[in-house]
Amino acid sequence: MKAVVVIFLFIGFGLLIGLIAFHGLERVVAALASSRWGLFALCIFHLLPMLAAANCWRRLIPGTTRPSFWTAFTLQWVGGSVNSLLPVAQVGGDFVRARLLTLRDVSSSIAGASVIVDLTIAVGAQIIFSSAGILMLIQYEELDNTTFAVGIGVVILGILITGFIIAQRTGLFYKLTNIIEKIVKVGDWTAITGGARALDDGIQSIYRRHRDLIIAAFWRIFGVIVGSGQIMIGLHFLGHPVGLIEALILEGMMHAVRIAAFMIPAAIGVQEGGLVLVGMIVGIGPDTSLALSLLIRARSIVVGIPALIYWQLVESRRLIAGFNEGAKASADTGNSNDS
User: Fold this and answer.
1) Residue 30 Cα to chain centre, angstroms
2) What is the DSSP letter of 61?
3) CB 126 within 8 Å of CB 259
């Protein structure tokens, strides 16, 4: 699996380098240089969609174990940064935030269930937003092959996510484990089956809390929509301001290509290619579209690196604490033997 991700990573970088070389490195660099305070403005604005995503996830966690807003915000920040900066096929950060939540005395089943449902809502919101972007894009031109292909991809993913929701509601994880248990008659599967059952129970309990689901979905959709503001801000500082409709189209199509290219880490190259194609339709030059995408990636780096450092500090403290406990236990055993 890691080899596949690395291959896709190289493909993405190859596409990105090819796009910049084709449209002119000097022109792209000049467009970026003209943005001035654009990067700072994008970093500040990005707090809004992060806040919305944190509220969505936090709402899905049961009240007795629900973390504070700042805890959810911090873990969401880490998870999003892992997805944006590390070669993890855009979903590894979700597992990281689930793991970090378990380090705060939340059971793994609850943490895992909340992340799975949150990821389902997030993809569903992106599909809705991407579909709206495609519909608005049609107003600019006839439905060409590119738009048609992206639209088909979004529809297919919508069908898959619907099936995934149905599978969650019918006890997907526990049933899969039971099938494996019947086929593979080796070893003790009790712990695995119990874990799967607990995870399924956690998912079912979340889906039964309709009010929390609705509020969580609202926050997620709000975050996706307000995220289009980064397009308006970025293009404003790049000297090519656009209206709300153009921003919604560009953001929607960016979500669409990221969904379609979920196996490529951070959709490197694919995001840039999609923005160039759609940008030309709404009257934005390729160099400006590439500069916008690179500006958004620069924002991800500036916001994300502190989150990765924080994550490593948390993991390091945990490892050191475990080592110290092991050393103390060994010392206590040695003293008992001596006596």
Assistant:
1) 30
2) S
3) yes
Is-contact 49 227, C-beta < 8 A? yes
CA 38, 39, 42, 43 torsion-angle sign: negative
Give CA–CA dist 9/269, Å, rounded. 9
Residue 145 CB contacts under 8 Å (≥ 6 apart), including other chains: none
Give, rounded to a whole angstrom, the gap between the first and last alpha carbons of the chain. Answer: 52
pLDDT at 229 over 70: yes
| DSSP annotation of 284 | -
For residue 75, the one-letter residue type is L
C-beta of residue 98 within 8 angstroms of C-beta of residue 111: yes
Q: Mean of the per-residue pLDDT values for the chain?
A: 77
Q: Token pair of 49, please?
A: 């969609």
For the chain, helix (H) and strand (E) counts, in that order, are: 15, 0
Q: pLDDT tens-digit profile of 147-196? A: 555 555 555 555 555 655 555 555 555 554 554 445 444 444 444 444 66
The residue type of 295 is L
Buried b / exposed e over 226-257, threshold 16 CB at 10 Å, is ebbbbbbbbbebbebebeeebbbbbbbbbbbb
